C-alpha cells in the first residue's frame, strides 16, 4: 500500500484531485488527511507517508506560495506527477440560512482570493475568516450555523449537509488548479514529460536573461516561470521554471548542467508526465 | 492640498509609509484612511482622492497580488513614487493576557504569511483570522480582549494600548515591504528613475525570452520580474517588469516601443524615482 497524504478532510478539492490521480487504482493507496500543507510535505519528508498531493498553482489566484517555499527550501522531495482540476467555488450555508443573514464567510485563503470580486460586491460588510481547508470551513459552518457561510466545493456541501446558496462564484469562468504529487523520487521517462527546477540568479544585470538564453540555445521549451522573493533581500528572487522534456533526455541534461554552473542556487525538482488535464 | 489615501486606520504599516513619503511636507496633504486596498485604488481612479500609497511587494511573502491585479487590469493609474519600509511584526494582546491564553490570532493575510513559521511552531492550535488591516486587528483585540492576539506594528500596539508579547516574529530578519504611490500621472525625469510595465507574451515557445532579449539589445537593466496568472487560462502569465531609466530616455523609449509591438498585451505603469530605501 502506498501511503498518500492530502489536505483533508474529505470533500476538499485536494481530496477530489487525489481520487482523480489514483483513478481505478485507489485500492493500492491508503489515504491520509492532514490539517495543513506544511504538515503534508513534512509528512513525506519525515517518512510518515510515501507521497502527497498538494496544490501549487491556480489560474486566478496564482502560485500557492506555501507549497513553493517549502519545496524550494525546506524539504528534499521530487515531483512525480501532476493533476489539473477545474475548480468551481460555491457559497454554502446551513439549511434555512438566507443570503441577507450572512455575517461571516469562512474558507481557505486561496478560494477567498479566487472569489475576491464576488465577496467585495455581494458581501462588502461580511467578516472574512481564513481557515485551513474548504472542507474545514464547511464543517465549522455545519456545526455553528448562524450567520456563517463557507466557500468550497459542491462535494464539501454534500459531505457536511449544507445548502448551496450561490454556484460558480469564482472571479472568471476559467478557474483551474494544478496539483503536484511529491515523493522521495521522481518518475522514469514516459515520452511526454516535463521537468521542474528552481534557481536564483547572480546579482548582476541580465542574469535571468542569460539563463533563459541557455534554454533557447538548446531549443528547450519553457512552459512556466514563476518568481518568488529570495527572502534574504527585497529585490532578489528565486525562479521556478518548468520545461518540456525529461532529465534523462540529452538536451535537457546538458542544459541543466549548464544552468547549474551559471546560478548561485539550483535545485532539481523532478521530471514527471504532463497531466492529461 | 493633495488628497492621499492609505490602508487605515492610523498605526498600519501603510500609515508609517505615508508619513515617510510625505516627510517634512505633511501639511501639504490631507490623508484619508480606507478599509481595503481595492477601495483605495478605486478611490484614485474615481477621483475621490488624488494619490494613494499601497504595498506591492514584501521580501518574505512576495507580491501583494490584489495590488498587482488591480493596477494591471482594473484601473488606469500611474506609479509616481515608491517607499521601502523595514517591517517588524509583533504579537500584541490586551494588558494581562498571557501567551498560553491565546486561542485566536488576527491580522492581515500578508503579515500572517510573513509569520507563518512562528505561528505554526508557537501556536499550532490557534485559530488564524484574516482581517483587512493590522491596525484593524489591533483595534478588534483591544475591544474584545479574551484569548485574542493581533500581529502588527509597534505603532499599532501603542495606538490601541496593547502589550507586545513577542517582538520581531517575522520569518527571517530581513523583512521589508515596498509601497508604491499611484496617481493619475507619473513623474518627470529626475535622473535616478525606474520604469514599470506589465505585459503578456504571445502563446508560443521562447516568447518571454524574446522580450528580455530586447532589454539586452538596448543594454537596459531589468531590476524585477514578477509573474502573475493571466486568469483566462492556467499556464498563461502576465509579467510585471521594472527597468532602470525613465520613459523619456531614448533607449527606454525605443525598447518600450519594440516591446509593445511584440506583446499581446502591454501597459505602461509609470516612471518614477527610486526609493532612497
UniProtKB/TrEMBL annotation, chains A, B:
BP GO terms, sorted: L-phenylalanine biosynthetic process
GO molecular function: prephenate dehydratase activity
GO cellular component: cytoplasm
Chain ranges passing through the membrane: none
The enzyme's E.C. designation: 4.2.1.51
Presence of keyword Plastid: no
Domain ACT, residue spans: 196-273
UniProt-listed SUPFAM superfamilies: ACT-like (SSF55021), Periplasmic binding protein-like II (SSF53850)
Pfam entry (one): ACT
Gene3D superfamilies associated with the record: 3.30.70.260, Periplasmic binding protein-like II
InterPro entries for the chain: ACT-like_dom_sf, ACT_dom, Preph_deHydtase, Preph_deHydtase_CS
Residues of the Prephenate dehydratase domain: 3-184
Keywords in alphabetical order: Amino-acid biosynthesis, Aromatic amino acid biosynthesis, Lyase, Phenylalanine biosynthesis
Recorded catalytic activity of this chain's protein: prephenate + H(+) = 3-phenylpyruvate + CO2 + H2O
Pathway: Amino-acid biosynthesis; L-phenylalanine biosynthesis; phenylpyruvate from prephenate: step 1/1
Domain of life assignment: Bacteria
NCBIfam families, alphabetized: PRK11898.1
UniProt-recorded name of the protein: Prephenate dehydratase
Gene designation per UniProt: pheA
